[in-house]
Structures are given as C-alpha cells and as structure tokens.
C-alpha cells in the first residue's frame, strides 16, 4: 500500500481524522455481535480543527508556514483559497475549519459493523469583514475498507475517459432500452436536418451530411457547451459546401469540438450534432427553422455531451482541474483499517450548503449552468453525460449517477418536463437567471420547452404566459434589491426600449435574464383564485415564422375595474420579503393595499402620481395546502416625515377617481404605433372567467359566479374546513365549509363576500388608452366595515385598457 507524506505543522495536526466519534454509534449485544443504534435523526457532528488568519491576496502566513515546516495542508489551503478567485475586500481574512460527521443513513463498516454516522469531509467558513463564504473539502478513498468504514465514496479518477469510467458509463448506457423507448416516443423517427459524420477513427475530417435520405436508425450524440467570447468555428454560407464535400480540417476544430469527437469515438457513436456547425449561422431562415427543432435534437440524441468544465469552445472539458490532497489514515478504533484518504477542494462562495449536497455546486459553479441555451438543451435531453472539473455525472430521466459511486433519484439538479403550472413557474424562476450573449435569443431558447408543454395539454401560450392561468401568471414581481435604475429609467426603457424583448406584462420584459431575478407573487399559494375581470385578451407579433420565438410587440387587452392610488406609497419593514421593497397604500388613514414596484426606491416613500390599480382576481380566506396566507394589514413601522394616516401627503385624494376609459375596438381594429407587423400574430383568445384555474395542489377550482347558487345547493349540507367567517354576512354563506352537493368552498360560492384582491399597478404609456405594468398589489379583506379587499373596488366601473 502506497503511503503519502503527512508533514503537518502544529496547527494543522487536527486535519488528521480521528474516527473515535464512531464509537457512540456502535453497539454490542450480550453475545458480542455488533449492531447500529439507528435513531432516524439527521444529526450533524462538528469537530473543530483550527482557525487561520491571513492577508489576501498572497496569504503570506500560510506560505511561510509551508516553507518553514513543510506543512502540506498550509500549502493546500493557500492554493484552495487562491483557486476560488474571490476578490476579498478586507486587508485580512479568517478561516475556520471543522470535520463534519452526518447521520444520513446506515452504512456497512468492517465485518458486521453498521452505523449511522458518516464522514462528510472538512467544512467551514471564511470571513471577510461582514462577508462570509462557505468552504468545503470532500473526502474520498479508493481503499474499500476505508470507504466502507467512513461511509465515503471512492476518489474520482484523474482522467475523465479512463478505462474505469468508460466501462462504468458503457454499462449504464447498455442498461437503457433505447429501442423500445424510441418506438413508444411519438417523436420516433426524427433526425436532425444535418449531422457531423466523424468517421470511425480520429484521423478523418468530420463531414456535414444531410439526413433527408436516411431511412434506417441513426445514433448520434448532441453537444451542449458554452460558445464563449472568443471567435470559434461555425458553418456559414461560404463554407457550407466545403464542409459537406471535403469535410472540416481537424486542425480548425476547437478543443471542445475535438473533445466531443473523442467522446463519440470512445463510445462507438459515429454521428455528432453541434449547433455551430450543423446550423448555417448567417442564414436567418435556416437558423430559425433549425432552432425551432433543437428540443427534438436533444430529446432524440443517444446521449447529450454536457461540457460543464469549459467556459468556451477553446477550453478542453476532458482535461480535469482537480485540486486534491492525499493524507494517511489510521483508524483509532481498529488498527487494521488504514490507507490513503483524499481531500478535494470543492469551492468557496457557497455559504451554508450542506456537505452532502455539494454535487449540486459542481453544476452551479460553472459557466455552462449560467447560459441561456444550455437550459433547454439539458431539460430536453433524456440521457446526458456531464463532464465537470472533478467527476463524471450520468443522468437518465431524473436519476443521477456519478463515477465515485453516488446516485440519487429523490434529489435532482433539474426539473424535467411535467405538464403542471407549478413545474412551469419553477422552471421559469431558474430560466430567468440565465444569461445570453444576444438578448433576442430569450424566447427562441425557451420555445422547445413551450412546445413540449403544449404537447401535454391543450392550452395557448403567449410571451411566457398560459391562457389557463393568465391572470395569476401576471402577478410576478421584480427582485428590486438587484436593480439600480429608478422609476424614470424604467419608464424610459419601456417607452423607448433599446432592444425590445417582450411587453411590460411579461416576466421576461424588463432586462436580459441574468440581470436580475423575479418571483411569482404569493397568490400562487393562496386558495380558490377567482377572476375579477370581464374579459382578457393577449396577443403578440412574432418577428419571424416561429410563433414562440422573437417578439416585435405585444398587448394585453383587459376589461376590469381600475382605481387611482389614493395616497403616496409608504415603505414598510417586513421580515419575510428581503429581495424587494414592500409599500402600503392608505385611504383615510386606514390600510387599503400593499404593493411591490418594479423599480427600487431610495427613501421611505414613492409618489403615487400616474399610478393606478387594476383588479385581476381574488382569493378567499381559505388556507392553501394547510399553509396560512400572509397578511400585511395596518403595518405601523413606516419611516420618514409622513404620519401613518398619510396626512402629510400632498397627493392624497379622498375621491376614488378612475383612469379614463379606453374607446378601442376589437383586436383586429386596433392601431398601435408599437406594432410594426400586423401578421402573423399569436392571440390569447377571450378568457372565460367561468373556466377552472389550476391550483397549486393540482386540483381545479371552479371560478366565476356562485356555483352553489346555480345548483340550488347553497347551505344545504356543509362539511367543516375551517371556522373563519365575516360577521357581516350570514355564517352559513361565508364559512369555509364544503357543500356536499357541489364540493366547493362556500365562501367562494357567495358573490357578496369580501375577498382578498390581487392585481397590477399600471402607468400611462405614450398613447392614450395604453399602459405599462409597473408593479403588483394585494388588498387583504379585513373583516366587517373595512374598505380593503374587493370592497376597495366596489365603486369602480369596468374599463377597457391595453397594457403594452
């Protein structure tokens, strides 16, 4: 057995692992046999090692200790912090490390020993003034006795495509029944328009071929990678014929393309799809046609090669960049267990990430994971092989495997296609953080996932929204803590966008994804959402032939109740929302509504000038999924020189004046200056307010007018749900009880009950009758006599407005 040099200074002696913590997890029966005392608790044990103080960026104290004592961990720790590339702000930093043991299940030890405590590695944090970063070193061992004894995985191999890894991946691929899966797939028989024929050896020039004449099955791999900022090889009109006839010279291929070809040859795959080469990049019609089929390209690939460790096509993803340290290990409980233990630095910037979830960080800490196009490529791939800096991941469906022996089905890094709205909103929250070299690619890069959703259910899609949940979907809000531009900048960009992406009501409209995030309002967790508009239409003008691609203009035409803001918006403190400011609107000194704006506000209030509230929907007091709704009633911790009644507000208005009513006709007769192209358009047809709206639980609640009253069953036979009532209405009509005839919440089925109100904050655009969406509001009903909730809009008339 090879031994390693364990020269350690006095401070770093604690790095040597003491496994006597396991003694509390091993029990003996009277006959001498051993067993595990499994408590079922996820108990975490931290054993402090030491603390270090040093001075960035050179960290001279760690360097001096290594030079004087030969300490291998001082050298390794310094290299790890330098490797993290964090730009520290303070003149000195502190590093605190501990051994981490975690009770995450029973693992077999030596002989009949079992236990619940497993070694998770070295964890800690780095403090830089007020900033704190997490730090983690994962353990591994190729010694079977040590890995079983400590409950750790094997050490990742230094070469990505070593014999062991190829055999491991090949076995996983062979266990997949590709033939039957393809035959059951409605997309069976699809081939990309073009493929690269890479031949059977690595000496042949890859050649572009057309698959139009192919009749038999073709197995191909698809490449998912980062283009990067540097110029790269692409197929253009001028080179298309050459690449098709003579092939592409090997010396012109970038490192990522060469690596992908090597992967294909290793696994016996002759054909490869790379977007830069299989799509004619300077042919707009070819680009649009091929990008609309990209989701099918990745879905039908034998497997997708995901180059996570490359940030451009000029960086190899097969050359691993592991940062490991080998230590000697000798069990202090059983002297027969000894060998080599490996520590591998896993990163610095993630504070509070549980060690056993560090594999997720191997995905997130890559440029690949931040790019917009790779989102769809990963989502649509049934099988994928991920190349990270330190290990291979294999995924089929939602099941992950790694070369070191870890696997997971319960936890996955991505959410696969499922035809539910909650899945769509979860997906959008992740997609919204992706970055694009060209912001105009936002909608094209999402169109494949849209088509997949449409294949599951009959629905209409427009600018990121779905007809069956259009009103709730409009209730998103910006994460303003990440923004710098104020109200004037937002309105200027909406009126004269430097690059038009989407209408203001779309959550993809503000700036390029990645610039700042969004959240969907808590209305998604509320019970029994009901439409409060007379009608709603939405349509967009596509820039090309793809109805889900780039957009030239878009309109949401809504007939609903509108009132002007009654007071300036007063900022309130709230411990729940930390990513955006919360404001309150008051009428005659009483709470009327709370709202969130689409721009950050410096100060304690914002003028209500030109701001109006458009009522979209309402919810009852019922809890959704057993979770109480969040109330923001009568917050008193306002700041600034204005009192809580708003008397100091020069813009207070006691009358509920309304926005001027639009006189526009039907969509076909509209004349919008923003519409550069009349056809083709995608239209979200009239929203029927009686149609069901899908709840977060997957059930569907009937919306609209009194369903129980229609059936003649109101108050007939009730089942208790909860006891909350409004005392100004008969309890039999307003209690949260279920009617035994129709099964609906009685409070939803009584039209006169006061409900929580939800809607948009709008601002006039340049053209009369047109508005921008600039925020979201909720008005919580607050018992008898209150002016809030849907009662806030009792005196308002229905108006037709266009939101652009």
From TrEMBL:
InterPro entries: HET. Residues 631-675 are annotated as: Disordered. Residues 220-377 form the Heterokaryon incompatibility domain. Signal peptide: none annotated. Residues 632-642, 652-669 have a biased composition (Basic and acidic residues). Pfam families: HET. This is Heterokaryon incompatibility domain-containing protein. It comes from Clonostachys chloroleuca.
């Amino acid at each position: 057995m090879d031994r390693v040099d364990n020269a350690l200074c006095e401070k770093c002696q604690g790095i040597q692992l003491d496994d006597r913590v396991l003694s509390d997890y091993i029990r003996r029966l009277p006959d001498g046999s051993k067993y595990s005392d499994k408590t079922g608790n996820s108990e975490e044990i931290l054993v402090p090692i030491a603390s270090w103080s040093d001075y960035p960026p050179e960290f001279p104290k760690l360097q001096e200790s290594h030079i004087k004592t030969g300490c291998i961990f001082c050298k390794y720790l310094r290299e790890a912090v330098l490797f993290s590339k964090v730009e520290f702000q303070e003149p000195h930093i502190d590093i605190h490390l501990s051994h981490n043991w975690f009770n995450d299940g029973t693992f077999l030890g030596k002989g009949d020993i079992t236990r619940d405590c497993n070694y998770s590695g070295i964890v800690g944090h780095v403090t830089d003034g007020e900033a704190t970063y997490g730090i983690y070193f994962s353990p591994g061992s190729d010694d079977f006795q040590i890995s079983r004894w400590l409950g750790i995985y094997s050490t990742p191999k230094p070469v990505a495509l070593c014999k062991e890894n190829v055999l491991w991946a090949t076995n996983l691929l062979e266990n997949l029944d590709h033939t039957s899966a393809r035959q059951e797939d409605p997309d069976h028989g699809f081939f990309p328009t073009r493929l690269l024929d890479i031949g059977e050896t690595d000496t042949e020039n890859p050649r572009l071929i057309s698959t139009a004449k192919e009749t038999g099955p073709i197995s191909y791999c698809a490449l998912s990678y980062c283009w990067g900022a540097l110029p790269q090889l692409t197929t253009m009109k001028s080179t298309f014929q050459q690449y098709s006839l003579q092939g592409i010279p090997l010396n012109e291929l970038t490192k990522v393309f060469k690596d992908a070809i090597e992967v294909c040859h290793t696994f016996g795959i002759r054909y490869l799809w790379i977007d830069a080469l299989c799509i004619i990049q300077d042919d707009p019609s070819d680009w649009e046609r091929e990008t609309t089929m990209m989701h099918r390209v990745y879905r039908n690939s034998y497997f997708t090669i995901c180059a996570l460790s490359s940030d451009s096509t000029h960086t190899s993803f097969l050359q691993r960049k592991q940062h490991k340290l080998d230590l000697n290990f000798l069990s202090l409980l059983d002297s027969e267990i000894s060998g080599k233990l490996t520590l591998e630095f896993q990163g610095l910037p993630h504070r509070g990430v549980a060690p056993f979830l560090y594999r997720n960080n191997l995905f997130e800490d890559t440029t690949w994971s931040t790019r917009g196009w790779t989102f769809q490529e990963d989502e649509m791939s049934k099988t994928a092989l991920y190349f990270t800096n330190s290990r291979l991941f294999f995924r089929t469906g939602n099941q992950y495997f790694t070369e070191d022996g870890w696997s997971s089905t319960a936890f996955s890094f991505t959410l696969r296609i499922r035809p539910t709205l909650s899945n769509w909103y979860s997906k959008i929250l992740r997609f919204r953080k992706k970055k694009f070299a060209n912001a105009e690619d936002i909608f094209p890069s999402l169109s494949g996932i849209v088509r997949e959703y449409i294949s599951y259910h009959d629905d209409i899609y427009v600018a990121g929204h779905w007809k069956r949940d259009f009103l709730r979907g409009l209730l998103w809000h910006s994460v303003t803590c990440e923004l710098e531009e104020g109200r004037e900048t937002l309105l200027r960009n909406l009126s004269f966008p430097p690059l038009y992406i989407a209408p203001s009501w779309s959550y993809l409209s503000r700036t390029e994804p990645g610039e700042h995030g969004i959240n969907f309002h808590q209305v998604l967790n509320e019970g029994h959402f009901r439409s409060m508009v007379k009608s709603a239409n939405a349509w967009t003008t596509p820039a090309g032939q793809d109805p889900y691609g780039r957009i030239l203009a878009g309109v949401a035409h809504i007939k609903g109740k509108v009132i002007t803001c009654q007071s300036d918006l007063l900022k309130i403190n709230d411990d729940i929302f930390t990513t955006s400011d919360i404001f309150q609107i008051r009428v005659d000194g009483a709470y009327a509504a709370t709202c969130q704006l689409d721009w950050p506000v410096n100060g304690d209030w914002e003028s209500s000038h030109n701001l109006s509230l458009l009522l979209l929907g309402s919810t009852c007091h019922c809890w959704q999924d057993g979770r109480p709704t969040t109330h923001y009633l009568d917050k008193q911790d306002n700041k600034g020189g204005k009192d809580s009644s708003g008397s100091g507000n020069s813009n207070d208005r006691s009358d509920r004046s309304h926005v001027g009513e639009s006189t526009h006709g039907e969509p076909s007769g509209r004349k919008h200056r923003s519409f550069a192209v009349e056809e083709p358009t995608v239209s979200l047809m009239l929203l029927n307010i009686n149609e069901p709206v899908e709840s977060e639980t997957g059930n569907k609640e009937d919306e609209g007018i009194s369903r129980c009253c229609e059936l003649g069953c109101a108050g007939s036979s009730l089942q208790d749900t909860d006891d909350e009532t409004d005392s100004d209405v008969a309890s039999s009509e307003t209690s949260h009880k279920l009617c035994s005839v129709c099964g609906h919440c009685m409070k939803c089925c009584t039209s006169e009950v006061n409900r929580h109100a939800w809607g948009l904050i709008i601002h006039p655009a340049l053209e009369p009758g047109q508005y921008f969406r600039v925020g979201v509001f909720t008005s919580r009903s607050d018992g008898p006599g209150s002016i809030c909730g849907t009662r806030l809009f009792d005196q308002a008339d229905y108006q037709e407005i266009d939101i652009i």
